[in-house]
From TrEMBL:
Protein name: Enterobactin esterase
Pfam families assigned: Esterase (PF00756)
Entry keyword annotation includes Hydrolase: yes
Gene3D superfamilies named in the record: alpha/beta hydrolase
Amino acid sequence: MARSTVQIPRAEQWTMKSRNGNHAYQIMVFQPAEAPPPSGYPVIYLLDANSVFGTMVEAVRVQGRRPEKTGALPAIVVGIGYPTAGPFSPHRYYDFTPQATTEYTQNSDGTPLPKQGGADEFLQFIEEVLKPDMEQQFRIDRNRQAIFGHSLGGLFVLHTLFKKPEAFRYYIAGSPSLHWNQNVMQAEEEEFIARLEQHPVNVKVWIGMGEQEKTHPARNNDKASSLTERLSALKQPGLDIKYTEFEEENHVSVLPFLISRTMRFACSPES
Protein backbone atom coordinates (compact mmCIF):
# COMPACT_ATOMS: atom_id res chain seq x y z
CA MET A 1 0.00 0.00 0.00
CA ALA A 2 1.48 3.32 -1.09
CA ARG A 3 1.56 5.98 1.61
CA SER A 4 2.28 9.68 1.58
CA THR A 5 2.48 12.54 4.05
CA VAL A 6 -0.80 14.25 4.92
CA GLN A 7 -0.68 17.90 3.93
CA ILE A 8 -2.89 20.89 4.73
CA PRO A 9 -4.41 22.20 1.49
CA ARG A 10 -3.43 25.76 0.49
CA ALA A 11 -0.89 26.02 3.31
CA GLU A 12 2.85 26.57 3.09
CA GLN A 13 5.71 27.25 5.46
CA TRP A 14 9.16 28.78 5.50
CA THR A 15 11.74 30.06 7.96
CA MET A 16 12.14 33.73 8.85
CA LYS A 17 14.67 35.31 11.18
CA SER A 18 14.32 38.21 13.58
CA ARG A 19 15.83 41.48 12.50
CA ASN A 20 19.01 40.86 14.50
CA GLY A 21 19.18 37.32 13.14
CA ASN A 22 19.30 35.77 16.60
CA HIS A 23 15.98 33.90 16.43
CA ALA A 24 14.43 31.73 13.72
CA TYR A 25 10.69 31.25 13.28
CA GLN A 26 8.76 28.70 11.27
CA ILE A 27 6.10 30.75 9.48
CA MET A 28 3.01 28.83 8.35
CA VAL A 29 0.48 30.53 6.08
CA PHE A 30 -2.94 29.45 4.84
CA GLN A 31 -4.69 31.35 2.04
CA PRO A 32 -8.38 30.68 1.31
CA ALA A 33 -9.56 29.35 -2.04
CA GLU A 34 -12.35 31.94 -2.05
CA ALA A 35 -11.70 35.29 -3.72
CA PRO A 36 -10.78 38.07 -1.28
CA PRO A 37 -13.19 40.91 -0.49
CA PRO A 38 -12.39 44.25 -2.19
CA SER A 39 -10.61 45.40 0.97
CA GLY A 40 -8.59 42.17 1.24
CA TYR A 41 -8.79 39.14 3.51
CA PRO A 42 -9.05 39.38 7.28
CA VAL A 43 -5.90 37.89 8.81
CA ILE A 44 -5.33 35.95 12.03
CA TYR A 45 -1.81 35.95 13.46
CA LEU A 46 -1.49 32.74 15.46
CA LEU A 47 1.06 32.12 18.22
CA ASP A 48 2.37 28.62 19.08
CA ALA A 49 1.57 27.59 15.52
CA ASN A 50 3.30 24.20 15.92
CA SER A 51 0.46 23.16 18.21
CA VAL A 52 -2.67 24.78 16.75
CA PHE A 53 -2.08 25.84 13.12
CA GLY A 54 -3.93 22.82 11.71
CA THR A 55 -6.87 23.30 14.06
CA MET A 56 -7.20 26.99 13.16
CA VAL A 57 -6.86 26.36 9.43
CA GLU A 58 -9.56 23.70 9.37
CA ALA A 59 -11.90 26.01 11.29
CA VAL A 60 -11.23 28.79 8.77
CA ARG A 61 -11.43 26.49 5.75
CA VAL A 62 -14.78 24.97 6.75
CA GLN A 63 -16.51 28.02 8.25
CA GLY A 64 -15.28 30.48 5.62
CA ARG A 65 -17.06 28.62 2.80
CA ARG A 66 -20.51 29.89 3.83
CA PRO A 67 -20.20 33.22 5.67
CA GLU A 68 -23.93 33.81 5.43
CA LYS A 69 -24.49 30.61 7.44
CA THR A 70 -21.45 30.50 9.73
CA GLY A 71 -20.91 34.21 10.37
CA ALA A 72 -17.25 33.92 9.39
CA LEU A 73 -15.50 35.30 6.31
CA PRO A 74 -12.63 33.46 4.61
CA ALA A 75 -9.39 34.59 6.25
CA ILE A 76 -5.64 34.23 5.95
CA VAL A 77 -3.97 32.45 8.86
CA VAL A 78 -0.37 33.38 9.65
CA GLY A 79 1.08 30.91 12.14
CA ILE A 80 4.23 31.84 14.03
CA GLY A 81 5.99 28.68 15.11
CA TYR A 82 9.47 27.40 15.69
CA PRO A 83 11.83 24.99 13.89
CA THR A 84 10.87 22.04 16.07
CA ALA A 85 8.92 18.81 15.62
CA GLY A 86 7.24 19.21 18.99
CA PRO A 87 4.05 21.18 19.72
CA PHE A 88 5.90 23.79 21.79
CA SER A 89 9.34 25.35 21.82
CA PRO A 90 11.13 26.46 25.00
CA HIS A 91 11.83 29.74 23.20
CA ARG A 92 8.20 30.75 23.76
CA TYR A 93 9.15 31.62 27.35
CA TYR A 94 11.40 34.36 25.97
CA ASP A 95 9.09 35.58 23.22
CA PHE A 96 5.87 35.75 25.22
CA THR A 97 7.01 37.25 28.55
CA PRO A 98 7.30 41.03 28.91
CA GLN A 99 10.20 41.05 31.33
CA ALA A 100 12.48 38.54 33.01
CA THR A 101 10.81 37.49 36.25
CA THR A 102 12.36 36.51 39.55
CA GLU A 103 9.14 34.79 40.63
CA TYR A 104 9.05 31.93 38.10
CA THR A 105 12.50 30.59 37.36
CA GLN A 106 11.96 26.84 37.82
CA ASN A 107 9.59 24.13 36.64
CA SER A 108 7.62 22.16 39.23
CA ASP A 109 10.32 19.47 39.13
CA GLY A 110 13.02 21.98 40.03
CA THR A 111 14.61 22.23 36.57
CA PRO A 112 15.34 25.80 35.42
CA LEU A 113 12.93 27.55 33.07
CA PRO A 114 14.27 28.92 29.79
CA LYS A 115 15.34 32.54 29.39
CA GLN A 116 12.49 35.06 29.64
CA GLY A 117 11.75 38.72 28.92
CA GLY A 118 11.78 39.09 25.11
CA ALA A 119 8.18 40.15 24.38
CA ASP A 120 9.11 43.61 23.09
CA GLU A 121 11.69 42.11 20.74
CA PHE A 122 9.15 39.54 19.52
CA LEU A 123 6.52 42.22 18.94
CA GLN A 124 9.08 44.19 16.94
CA PHE A 125 9.63 41.11 14.75
CA ILE A 126 5.89 40.82 14.11
CA GLU A 127 5.40 44.51 13.36
CA GLU A 128 8.57 45.30 11.41
CA VAL A 129 9.50 42.03 9.72
CA LEU A 130 6.56 39.62 9.51
CA LYS A 131 3.62 41.93 8.83
CA PRO A 132 5.26 43.89 5.98
CA ASP A 133 6.23 40.60 4.34
CA MET A 134 2.68 39.24 4.63
CA GLU A 135 1.17 42.44 3.25
CA GLN A 136 3.51 42.28 0.29
CA GLN A 137 2.65 38.68 -0.53
CA PHE A 138 -1.08 38.55 0.18
CA ARG A 139 -4.17 40.74 -0.15
CA ILE A 140 -4.70 41.62 3.51
CA ASP A 141 -7.18 44.04 5.04
CA ARG A 142 -5.02 46.05 7.44
CA ASN A 143 -8.14 47.10 9.34
CA ARG A 144 -9.08 43.48 10.11
CA GLN A 145 -6.01 41.98 11.74
CA ALA A 146 -6.32 39.65 14.73
CA ILE A 147 -3.84 38.03 17.10
CA PHE A 148 -4.53 34.77 18.92
CA GLY A 149 -2.45 33.41 21.79
CA HIS A 150 -2.99 30.84 24.52
CA SER A 151 -1.47 30.54 28.01
CA LEU A 152 1.82 32.49 27.88
CA GLY A 153 0.73 33.40 24.36
CA GLY A 154 -2.43 34.91 25.88
CA LEU A 155 -0.22 36.95 28.20
CA PHE A 156 1.66 38.24 25.16
CA VAL A 157 -1.64 39.18 23.48
CA LEU A 158 -2.54 41.39 26.47
CA HIS A 159 0.98 42.82 26.61
CA THR A 160 0.58 43.84 22.95
CA LEU A 161 -2.82 45.40 23.70
CA PHE A 162 -1.35 47.49 26.51
CA LYS A 163 1.85 48.51 24.74
CA LYS A 164 0.75 48.88 21.09
CA PRO A 165 -3.04 48.64 20.81
CA GLU A 166 -3.04 49.92 17.21
CA ALA A 167 -1.13 46.80 16.10
CA PHE A 168 -4.34 44.74 15.82
CA ARG A 169 -8.09 45.24 15.65
CA TYR A 170 -8.95 41.97 17.42
CA TYR A 171 -7.19 40.52 20.46
CA ILE A 172 -7.93 36.92 21.49
CA ALA A 173 -6.26 35.91 24.77
CA GLY A 174 -6.93 32.27 25.59
CA SER A 175 -6.31 31.25 29.22
CA PRO A 176 -3.74 34.03 29.66
CA SER A 177 -1.04 33.34 32.27
CA LEU A 178 -1.86 36.42 34.31
CA HIS A 179 0.00 35.05 37.34
CA TRP A 180 3.20 35.69 35.36
CA ASN A 181 4.87 39.12 35.51
CA GLN A 182 2.00 40.47 37.63
CA ASN A 183 3.70 43.71 38.67
CA VAL A 184 4.85 44.37 35.11
CA MET A 185 1.41 43.69 33.65
CA GLN A 186 -0.27 45.88 36.28
CA ALA A 187 2.05 48.78 35.38
CA GLU A 188 1.37 48.23 31.66
CA GLU A 189 -2.39 48.21 32.27
CA GLU A 190 -2.20 51.46 34.24
CA GLU A 191 -0.13 53.12 31.50
CA PHE A 192 -2.60 51.87 28.88
CA ILE A 193 -5.55 53.35 30.79
CA ALA A 194 -3.73 56.64 31.33
CA ARG A 195 -3.15 57.00 27.58
CA LEU A 196 -6.75 56.34 26.56
CA GLU A 197 -7.98 59.90 27.06
CA GLN A 198 -5.38 61.32 24.67
CA HIS A 199 -5.05 58.26 22.46
CA PRO A 200 -8.40 56.45 22.07
CA VAL A 201 -8.34 52.92 20.69
CA ASN A 202 -10.50 50.90 18.32
CA VAL A 203 -10.12 47.31 19.45
CA LYS A 204 -12.16 44.25 20.35
CA VAL A 205 -10.71 42.05 23.07
CA TRP A 206 -11.89 38.59 24.03
CA ILE A 207 -10.51 36.58 26.95
CA GLY A 208 -11.58 32.93 27.08
CA MET A 209 -10.90 30.38 29.84
CA GLY A 210 -11.85 26.82 30.68
CA GLU A 211 -14.21 26.52 33.63
CA GLN A 212 -12.02 23.85 35.23
CA GLU A 213 -9.09 26.28 35.36
CA LYS A 214 -10.80 27.81 38.39
CA THR A 215 -9.31 25.08 40.56
CA HIS A 216 -5.71 26.06 39.71
CA PRO A 217 -3.92 27.95 42.51
CA ALA A 218 -2.93 30.68 40.04
CA ARG A 219 -6.61 31.80 39.99
CA ASN A 220 -6.26 33.15 36.47
CA ASN A 221 -10.02 32.96 35.88
CA ASP A 222 -10.54 35.49 38.65
CA LYS A 223 -7.69 37.64 37.34
CA ALA A 224 -9.07 37.59 33.79
CA SER A 225 -12.62 38.33 34.93
CA SER A 226 -11.40 41.24 37.09
CA LEU A 227 -9.34 42.66 34.21
CA THR A 228 -12.41 42.54 31.97
CA GLU A 229 -14.49 44.34 34.59
CA ARG A 230 -11.85 47.06 35.09
CA LEU A 231 -11.50 47.80 31.39
CA SER A 232 -15.26 47.61 30.76
CA ALA A 233 -15.86 50.11 33.58
CA LEU A 234 -13.86 52.73 31.65
CA LYS A 235 -16.78 53.09 29.21
CA GLN A 236 -14.38 53.82 26.37
CA PRO A 237 -16.41 53.59 23.11
CA GLY A 238 -13.48 52.13 21.13
CA LEU A 239 -12.62 49.47 23.72
CA ASP A 240 -14.85 46.39 23.55
CA ILE A 241 -13.78 43.61 25.91
CA LYS A 242 -15.54 40.35 26.76
CA TYR A 243 -14.81 37.38 29.02
CA THR A 244 -16.06 33.81 28.49
CA GLU A 245 -15.72 30.60 30.50
CA PHE A 246 -16.28 27.31 28.69
CA GLU A 247 -18.15 24.77 30.77
CA GLU A 248 -16.29 21.56 31.71
CA GLU A 249 -13.14 22.57 29.78
CA ASN A 250 -9.61 22.80 31.14
CA HIS A 251 -6.49 24.76 30.24
CA VAL A 252 -5.76 22.63 27.16
CA SER A 253 -9.14 21.21 26.13
CA VAL A 254 -10.51 24.75 25.79
CA LEU A 255 -8.34 25.42 22.71
CA PRO A 256 -10.69 24.08 19.98
CA PHE A 257 -13.57 26.08 21.44
CA LEU A 258 -11.50 29.25 21.50
CA ILE A 259 -10.36 28.69 17.93
CA SER A 260 -13.87 28.08 16.59
CA ARG A 261 -15.30 31.12 18.37
CA THR A 262 -12.41 33.26 17.09
CA MET A 263 -13.82 32.96 13.58
CA ARG A 264 -17.07 34.72 14.45
CA PHE A 265 -15.26 37.19 16.70
CA ALA A 266 -12.58 38.32 14.24
CA CYS A 267 -14.03 37.42 10.83
CA SER A 268 -17.70 38.33 11.08
CA PRO A 269 -19.11 39.88 7.86
CA GLU A 270 -20.75 42.54 10.01
CA SER A 271 -17.64 43.65 11.97
